[in-house]
Amino acid sequence: MSERKLNIIRVISGTTANLGMYIGGIPVGMLVDHKGPRPGVIMGGGLMTVGYFSIHRAYESGPGSIALPWLCFFAFMTGIGGASAFSGSIKTSALNWPNHRGSATAFPLSAFGLGAFFFTAISSLAFPDNTSSFLLLLSIGCLTMCYVSVAFLRIIPQGQSYVSVPADDGRRSSNPLRRTKSEGSKHSVGRPSQEPGMQPYDTLYVPSGHKSDENIEVTLEASDGEADENSSLISSSPGDVPYQDDGSKSAAHHDSQHVDVRGFALLTHVEFYQLWLLLGILTGVGLMTIKALWNHYDDSAPLAFIEKRQLRHVMLLSVLSCVGRLCSGIGSDLIVKKLHASRFWCLFISSSIFCIAQLCGTQIGNPHLLGFVSAITGLGYGFLFGVYPSLVAETFGINGLSQNWGAMTLSPIVFGNIFNLLYGHIYDSHSYNHDGQKTCPDGLECYRVAYWVTFAGSLTALGISLWSIRHAYVKKAKAKHSARLEDRDA
Fold first, then answer.
1. What are phi and psi of 191, to 5 degrees?
2. In this structure, what are the phi and psi dihedrals at residue 218, rounded to the nearest 5 degrees?
3. 193's torsion region: left (phi>0), alpha (psi -120 to 50) or beta?
4. Are 247 and 484 in contact, with CB atoms under 8 Å apart?
5. How confident is the model at residue 411 (pLDDT cuts 50, 70, 90)?
6. Per-residue pLDDT reduced to its tens digit, 2-11
7. pTM, whole model, 2 decimals?
8. Which among 189, 91, 128 has a CA at the least distance from the CA of 311?
9. DSSP alpha helices (H): ranges in 234-369?
10. In the predicted model, what is the mean pLDDT of the chain?
11. pLDDT value at position 8?
């Protein structure tokens, strides 16, 4: 099989794997939201294992051993499997640490971004230049990590705080049980840990009738028995915004446990279009930048040298993306809790980093300096993805996080293809036919215009992020004002 045909197969299979990850986001998200994270991780591990192992067997058997549609199907399976396992891990982190959701989701997000570096590093050390062994490593690694970790994957019910209901000797017989509200300054009630899928316990208080400060704690199991593990979110523990005792508490307590927007209802909210456009534009810019990195022309360089340089760029992108995701997730919590500002500031930072990366791309023509473009792009990618699940949960509610995140991941399909087609058109306009293939020996001049287009896209994302910050501020101010009016009327 010719090198050209092999390249076509690589591109097609890689594209179908990405389609599986993006298109599969909504259905696997619905599975995770309704059945919990464990089924999602189990299914994801199985799909990735079967997919990578099948591709490994096809590679071992040689060209013609398997039809291209089947190869694409197995690649598609790996994409869906990755999306499924990823959704389960993100949902678990978001549920277990509701007060530090940005930091909690940043760690699995950074690990997801570091996966390319991890497997590539092991492959390059253990069996360099051996694609078949690398595919086998992926199948075994996905199976092991998913199925070992699923035993420790569980939702910890959040402890509710309580206030005592004072007894009244004269009204003792008519005083009903009252569900207590949670406040950050009250004492929390310890509960035995529960396995996922069990309805959390409700803590009620009954007046004792002997002293006004004596209470009997009654712990009741929910009457409907088992429920899905998302029921642990029904507790009234504060979310990402600290609890306030003033008249603005209902606005500050805009926490995702009391919001549940999903499905077609997303289309009626302007915030959906904000987030969808920002994610699509910036991922499209990043994908085009990565593609441009592989097209620096040097006919004197051997193929092995080029592959090693590409491997370095992949590792650099992966590491800086991991760093960016940690900084963005943890930083977004600090922005909310310490500065009382919006998480959208992290998207402003990401857009600014992408602008810098595109400017570097328009000027750097030396292949030895392309590491700067890779590093800055990876950092921008990290700041983008590190905060996004927290923004989605905060805006549309935690109960539908997985399927809403799946809806968001449709945007890279649209904008990624738009920017890549644009890049291809610009590259082809500077190319000429050579041995039946279009080639461009002019280096940076082949696609400098494409970088200016993505720079304009990054500036657009910068403007949308600033508008989103303003929109969130105005919305929060209106909610505070409404809360004060309600408290005054009461």
1. -130, 150
2. -115, 115
3. beta
4. yes
5. very high
6. 555 665 666 6
7. 0.74
8. 128
9. 249-252, 270-293, 303-337, 344-363
10. 77
11. 64
Task: Average the pLDDT over 160-177 and give the result.
Answer: 46
> Which range has highest mean pLDDT (116-120, 154-158, 254-258, 475-479)?
475-479
Burial state string for 342-381 with b = 16 or more CB within 10 A and e = fewer than 16: bbbbbbbbbbbbbbbbbbbbbebeebeebbebbbbbbbbb
Buried b (16+ CB within 10 A) or exposed e, 62-93: eeeebeeeebbbbbbbbbbbbbbbbbbbbbbb
Q: pLDDT tens for residues 393-407?
A: 989 988 888 999 999
Cα–Cα distance for residue pair 82/20, rounded to 1 Å: 9
Q: What are phi and psi of 220, to 5 degrees?
A: -110, 140
User: Hey, which residues does 202 pair with through a beta bridge?
Assistant: 220
Q: Is the pLDDT of residue 229 over 70?
A: no
What does R_g of the chain's alpha carbons equal in angstroms? Answer: 26
CB 136 within 8 A of CB 177: no
Q: Are strands 202-207 and 215-220 parallel, antiparallel or unpaired?
A: antiparallel
Tell me which residue of 246, 270, 255 sits closest to 470, measured CA to CA. 270
Q: How many residues can be counted in the chain?
A: 490
